[in-house]
Amino acid sequence: TIPVILDTDPGIDDAVALAAAIFSPHIDLKLITTVAGNVGVTQTTRNALQLLEFWNEDIPVAQGARRPLCRPQADAAHIHGESGMDGYAFAPPRQSPLIRPAFMAMAECLQESSRPVTLVTIGPLTNVALLLAHYPDCKTNISRIVMMGGSAGRGNFTPNAEFNIAIDPEAAAQVMESGIEIVMCGLDVTNRAVLTPDYMARLKTQSKTGKMLHSLFSHYRSGSLATGLRMHDLCAIAWLVHPELFQLVDCYVGVETQGTLTAGATVVDLENRFNRPANVRVAMDIDVDGFRHWVEETLALAP
Ligand code: BDR
Ligand code: CA
Q1: What is the largest CA-CA distance in the chain?
Q2: Cα(278) to centroid of ligand 2, in Å?
């Protein structure tokens, strides 16, 4: 199994990614950390705890950054609803978050692990930037960062920037320059990671998880139930267990932090025009059928 820390801002596609991370037989989910993103961090933390309660799992949860490193907070409630997971009435969680903030809990988890840990990030990168700033030595026990974020093409939050990077460009820039191996699953692949209406209808009747996810899907605005929904965050989990479904290109990626119109854009130097060493492995293509097959197989393992 692959030891994993999952940094998330649930979030409807985050909820599906969490299900896959918890129920995949190939992943050992050691810690969940939350960050402000789709909605505020109190709510993303509550959402993560509610999902664990729903599945009766007791993986530790640490609450992370309340706001980006240097910019005001913005959210995506127009995509995920006011609660971040609109559409299902969850029972209140019994588990509480850890006392330590996310970046300290991450450091502790990395220090204690006998094997290098993969950091999977499916929200803004604020917590990871704080971890690297406060505990630079932790790098040695991170095997790689697998992130959902960025784009080699257009954005989805501003014309040029993807949401997770646009919310905290300074944090993303620090992570990209960290020297840690980074696999970037950006919009180039995640816009194509669409669940079909046919499968979503079947999922609804499959299990209590299927029913719950389907209720969330009917409130998720990244596509539509009639034409299919984009499962951005699920791509990072898919790469982890089935890297052969993706084609990666190693190149230099910079994050624009100065632009007044382009802040948060990931500048992906596919033709090596800057002549800088590659720092990111960028997913440029995905086997969509293979992805869908894996999603069905993995979500069928959830109760
Ligand atoms: C990303 O933005 C969020 O709304 C989703 O959860 C995903 O992490 C897609 O751009
Ligand atoms: Ca997310």
Answers
A1: 53
A2: 25
Which one from 26, 232, 242, 293 is the annotated catalytic residue? 232
pLDDT of residue 10: 98
Q: How far apart are CA 60 and CA 104, in angstroms?
A: 13
Instruction: Name every residue whose Cβ is closer than 8 Å to that of residue 260 and which is 6 or more positions away in sequence.
Output: none
> Which stretches of the chain drop beneath a pLDDT of 50?
none
256 close to ligand 1 (CB < 6 Angstrom)? no
What ipTM was predicted for this assembly?
Answer: 0.99
> What Cα–Cα distance (Å) separates residue 26 from each residue in 62, 116, 238, 287?
23, 15, 11, 20
According to the model, what pLDDT value does residue 297 have?
Answer: 98
Q: Is 232 a catalytic residue?
A: yes
Determine contact, residues 64/127, Cβ cutoff 8 Å. Answer: yes
Residue of 237, 239, 231 lying closest to 79 (CA atoms): 231
Which of these, 184, 242, 181, lies nearest to 27 by C-alpha position?
A: 242
Instruction: List the structure tokens of 102.
Output: 């996310």
Task: For the sheet with 194-195, list strands across it.
Answer: 194-195, 228-230, 223-224
